[in-house]
Structure formats: C-alpha cells, structure tokens
Automatic annotation (TrEMBL):
The keyword Membrane applies. Keywords: Cell membrane, Membrane, Transmembrane, Transmembrane helix. This is MFS transporter. It is a multi-pass membrane protein. Residues 177-413 form the Major facilitator superfamily (MFS) profile domain. The chain crosses the membrane at residues 20-45, 51-75, 82-100, 106-125, 145-167, 173-192, 228-251, 257-279, 291-324, 344-367, 374-391. SUPFAM superfamilies: MFS general substrate transporter. It is found in: Cell membrane. It comes from Nonomuraea ferruginea.
Amino acid sequence: MSTERAATYGEVFAVREFRVLFGSFALLVSGDSIKMLALSVLVYAESGSPGLAAAAYMVGWLPYIVGGMFLLSLADRLPARGLMVVGELVRVVVCLLLAYAGLPVWAMLALVLVTGLFSPVFGAARSAMLPDVLPGDAFVLGRSLLGVTSAGAQIGGLAVGGAFLAATGPQGALAATAALSAFGALILRLGLPPSPPRQTDRRGSASGAVRTTLRVNRVLLADRRVRGLLLASWVPPLFLAGGEAMIVPYLGGQGKAGVVLAAAAAGMAVGEFAVGRFAAPALRERLSLPLAVLLGVPWLGFLAAPGVGWAAALAAVAAAGLAYQLGLQRRFVDAVPEDVRGQAFGLLSTGLMTGQAVGAALIGVVGEVFSPRLGIVVAGAAGVLAALALWRPLRPEPAPGRITAEQTPTRTP
C-alpha cells in the first residue's frame, strides 16, 4: 500500500507537458462526441433508417476490439508524439471526407471502421506518456483529471454538436470536428518534446506488429498480478454500462433518458474529482473495493420503479463509484514492464470498451426477455457480485517488506 505524500492538482497543472496532454484530450473527446452525433444524423438523413443511424453512432467504438488485439505494439515501437499527431490528422481527413465527399452510407461506415482500427494505438501512446510526465502520485491525479475532463467534454461536445447541427447541419458539425482535431494536432506538435519509442527494435512490417501485439498480450494476461488488475478494471464497469443501456427503454423517451445519462456523467466527474482531490494515496487504494461495490448497489433501487428524478440520482451515485479505478492506477503502472507500457494501457482501454459493449448486450437480452426495469436490477446485482468476487485485486497490496498475518510463522511448542 502506498504511503507517499499525496500530490495536488496545482502541482499537476504546473507541468507543461500535462497541460498539453490535458488540453488536447479535451478537444479529442469533445470532437469525437460531435463527430459521432453528426455522423448518426447524416446517415439517417441519407438512409432514413433508425437502425443504421444507431449503428453509425456506435461504429466508432467497434474498431477498438480489433485494433486492441492486433496493433497495440505500435504504441511502443513508434514515437508517442508522432503517433498522437498522426491520430489527430487522420480525424481531420475522415471528418472532411464524411462531410463533403458525398459518400454513400456503406462507404461512410466503412471509412470510420477502417480508420478507427488505429484509435487504440493513438490512445495508448497518450496514456503511456502520462506516467513519464507525472511521476509518483501526480500520475493518479492526472488520470483523475482526465476522467473528469472526459465526462465534461462528452456533455459539452453533445451540447455543442447539437447547436452546430441546428445551425449548420451535419456537414458543418463535422467540419467543426475537423477544426478541433487540427488544433489538437498543432498543440501536440508544438507543446510536447520529441519522444523516442519505448522499444528500439522496430524490425518487421505490419505482420510483425501483429505478432508482437499478440505475444505481449499473452504475456500480460499470463501474469497473475496484471491479469487481476485488468479484470478488476474491466468487469465492474461492464454491468454499469448494462444498466445505463436500459435507461432509454425504461423511461420510454429520449428526453427523459438524456437527463438520467447526463446525471451519470456528472456523478462520474464528481466521484473522480472528490477521490482524487481529498483521498490520500493509501486511502484511494482502500476505497477501491467499496467504490467498486457502489457501482452496482444503486441500480437495485430500480426495484421501486423510480421516476426521472430518483433515477437520475441513483445513476449519478452509481457512476461516482467509477472512482474506484484511481486506487488501481499506480499498482498497474508498477506491475507492467516499462518497455510495453503503451500496449498495456491500450489493452486496458480495449477491455473497457469491449466490456461496455458486452455489458449492454447481456443486460439488453434480460431487458428484452423480461423488462428494462428488471434488466437494470440484474445489472446492479451482478455488479455487486462481480466486485466482491474480485476482492483480491481490488484490496490494497501490503507494503514491500511488510509481513502480513498470513505470512507470520506460527510458534510451535
């Protein structure tokens, strides 16, 4: 368990490289929210199909599965700054093509899918750089700030995207996203120093990257400590996502559901900020298990069939439990080898993305067979059981060299 002095947000923001990563990340999340909303509207306008419009909204997340399985080693074999800049420029090109190339619906979806295969690589490069610029406890606070920023940028991006859609249509919203990405590329290029790759041996082609990715993924998952931390990071949010996926059918209206989902995003931001700001490093680690349990408990309140107000409050409290991951961050950095840190963070993100899709699908089946309300309750119960089953990786690790009760030899007569 960590006993070091807690860092402060002021110390984190004093680091120039973090301010660059922070600002570019806010632009990225806002831009992606606008892009997927505008793409959904554009596809619906072209096809008139609600199903295709929904698919367009989700299509940006699907490539994470493939990219995370086969391409993540590139995050350690190529310079991080260059990867992040290329990622922003790819988004510029994609948004402009979607807006003005007059592509048919199938081509638009294919473009987003293919270019999205490298999104996990770009994100992994950013995540792996964070412990370099923020050593020690400052890294955990940096992750906390990025979590708060992600929630706020999603809400702000959807609001700004809606305004652009009303004023300029989906083409104008996509053009605005391209401008945000171009600005983000400029910030990264001018604000970060050159960064050498973590692995100096870059022999081989794309097939070599695939083999390396598969090999390192196997090594990471074979390590008991790393595997436990990955499962502890992946599984509890799976059921949170399942519960949130049932909010729209439960309330029977997009407007009401939007209020509840916005409350969940706000709850996540408050939880991340409060635990990051007010909990010392050792306390964050002790809070991991109870906060992971908290992800599921509020959904059990849907047994009482709450209205919009109570549903929003319950969703906010549940999402606040996501702050449990702050207690795992330092342990995860310590557990993975430095030369594959980029791939390790990419694998972590890929599992989170995949788990959210799996959770929504599983709980969706329950909601379809029985009822959305029962689906939400099942998600809560499963979330609580999952957190309790993962108590070993969720509880604090003993300090190095400290003898625990289990390790103390018994005295024989």
